[in-house]
């Protein structure tokens, strides 16, 4: 029988999100030197109107306070090494396109 320790689970999530933040900081200057990333706790509302708190990467732009987004990550080495940067770049492009249509 296995009992999961919520504190340990939270520590593991924080470690993965910290790794993702560090990885993002390594390529964000090439994407846009005004982008900033941090790990934040965000409140999520489900389609059933239930709410819960979870960790997310929060991206913001130093010159445009409306240019921001949050994202979840897959907590695997494969994702961080092979898919994470392209996911951030895609989100950045989607945000950029959204900014030009407002």
List the helices and strands and how they pair.
Layout: H1 6-31, E1 35-45, E2 51-61, E3 64-71, H2 77-82, H3 84-100
Antiparallel strand pairs: 1-2, 2-3
Short recap of the structure:
This protein is α+β, with helices and mostly antiparallel strands and 102 residues long. It has three helices and three strands.
Describe this structure as you would to a colleague:
The protein is an alpha+beta fold and 102 residues long. The chain has one domain (6-100). Helices cover 48% and strands 29% of the residues. It is built from 3 helices and 3 strands. Strands 1-2-3 form a 3-stranded antiparallel beta sheet. β2 and β3 form a beta hairpin. The protein is globular and about 40 Å long. It starts with 5 loop residues before the first helix and ends with a helix. The mean pLDDT is 92.
Biggest sheet strand line-up:
1-2-3
Number of domains: 1
Number of strands: 3
The helical percent reads 40-55%
Summed up, the helix count is: 3
Please tell me the overall pLDDT: 92
**Rg calculated over all Cα atoms:** 15 Å
Report the principal-axis shape: globular
Task: Please write the string of helix (H) and strand (E) elements.
Answer: HEEEHH
Low-pLDDT segments, ≥5 res:
none
The description of the largest β-sheet is: 3 strands, antiparallel
Distance between the termini: 54 Å
Portion of residues in beta strands equals: 25-35%
Quickly give the structural class.
alpha+beta
